[in-house]
Amino acid sequence: MITGNKGEWSEFYAFIKLLVDKKIIGADQDLEKIEAIFFPILKIIREESEGKLEYELQEGEKVKILHGNGETAIVDTSDLKTKVVEIFSEIKEKSQTFSVPLAEELFDRLAVKTLNAGNSRKEDLILKVHDHTIGRDHEIGFSIKSKLGSPATLLNASGATNFTYKITGLDKQNLKRINAIDTKSKIRDRLFAIREAGGSFAFHKVDSEVFERNLRKIDTIMPEIMAEVLLAYFSDKGSTFPELLQHLQDEEVQILTFNLTTEDYEYKIKSLLNNAALGMVPASPWDGTLRAHGGVIIVREDGEIVCYHLYNAEAFRNYLFNNTRMESPSATRHGYGTIYEENGELFIKLNLQIRFIK
What we know:
single chain; six-stranded mixed barrel; four-stranded antiparallel sheet; 11 helices
């Protein structure tokens, strides 16, 4: 019996819902449908444990399944519309890791062995669609995000997402006392204690050279921008990007020699979020390619499915900017938040993680 969490089940749900709907509809920055932006679906392509499967949508309620070994099968989907509704209800009601008995028969019928494409892929489904704006059929990849379970991470924490800051003006006799602070908000409280003792912070480096190159590919001063955003977040100046960027503006924070406007900050942060959603991961060299070439499919809380694509890309950027936040991952696991000395100088690391608000 196949089991998974809400996010994994949402990928399977999106797949069967698209088989029923036979089209994908665009959304605005509030996840509301834009009926004028839609793509009729001709084929759905999934990666399975045993290889690629292609599902050609036929006339009526039939789907032709093409296996990687050349085998084909025609399956009837006339009952799928009802099953989709029932399966969605069960996914929405359950929690943790669970099975959906109603889906078991569909696994066999549709030759499904896994719920999702796995973490190594940015595109969860590839759709062959008819693009009526250019009058042509083409295949485009989509990643799938769900509003059903716990908020997903957009950019995952790791050792690669540590930013190092040099501390100046702090007497070394304060190190033991400050590092011993172990409150619920210990990172914030340690930063406050450093400042109270006369210390100040200056961005030193992104620990991962790979991640720094990826960031500079998005924007040459992106590491410096994110270092200031990260410091503001751990200094309790907000958690959402509108809040944090407003703080930088209010404090007239200068990024290198640049005096950035609110518009400048927003554009650059939206570029980071967009690229993190569609192709860039911190620990892997990135060539600038958006691996989910079509965009993102989102499973809404009401079971409707919408997408962001090239033609509503700005709405997607706005959605990300207004619906993500900074987060504090485990300091122990990722090795940050403690003052240390190196070559007679003091440093502290802060870690970057970005999560959807809901």
